[in-house]
Amino acid sequence: EMQLVDSGGGLVKPGGSLRLSCAASGFTISAYRMNWVRQAPGKGLEWVSIISASSSYMFYADSLNGRFTISRDNAKNSLYLQMNSLRAEDTAVYYCARLIPTAIGHDAFDIWGQGTLVTVS
Amino acid sequence: EIVLTQSPATLSLSPGERATLSCRASQSVSSYLAWYQQKPGQAPTLLIYDASNRATGIPARFSGSGSGTDFTLTISSLEPEDFAVYYCQQRSNWSWTFGQGTKVEIK
């Protein structure tokens, strides 16, 4: 079974840092673009960041203002999100998600982790 | 930035009824639209991609349609497990955005 398992969340004070991890099983992440998507309590989904299969490019949501860094270790089949200068508005469940290409050149998030809760307070 | 607006915010229906959910984009996204289902306490699940293609394992009662700026997710006959929140999603350049969601609740 293809699966993503998120970990690393917790309670952190404003201005603090946290590193999230996402471990894949049942498939090899090296062939895929990987992402982080977050969801504030009771709110909708917000895309956070993407990293290419070979780490040749990364992109981030404008709202992050350079505070987060996405990375991956294909040898460990894992994805990471380093979050610095955390603010109360970063409080959310963070999901890692696999992005797959579609036949007509689009893409979609087809596998999601179970999420890890980050609380900034 | 392309904004996705979903309507209605809440849909109150009974099992067996037909559900019609709308997603409108602030500018054309061609057929670049996906739909996800999220149940309480769970991660989202991909239902539909490229506006009208069902993802692997998704029942035929789920269908998507539309192109350009107006899209629809239809659930032909609601099953008890279909009561959930549904999100549409698009990509524009290097940014992926979601609608605010439609909650389908039991009437």
Written overview of the protein:
- The complex is a heterodimer of chains A (121) and B (107).
- Helices cover 0% and strands 55% of the residues of chain A.
- With 121 residues, chain A is an all-beta fold.
- In chain A, the strands form two sheets. In chain A, strands 2, 4, 5, 6, 9, 10 and 11 form a seven-stranded mixed sheet that branches. Chain A has a four-stranded antiparallel sheet with strand order 1-3-8-7, with no helix packed on it.
- In chain A, strand 4 and strand 5 form a beta hairpin.
- Chain B is mainly β and 107 residues long.
- Chain B has no helices and eleven strands.
- The interface between A and B is medium-sized, with 22 and 25 residues.
In summary, what is this structure?
The complex is a heterodimer of chains A (121) and B (107). With 121 residues, chain A is an all-beta fold.
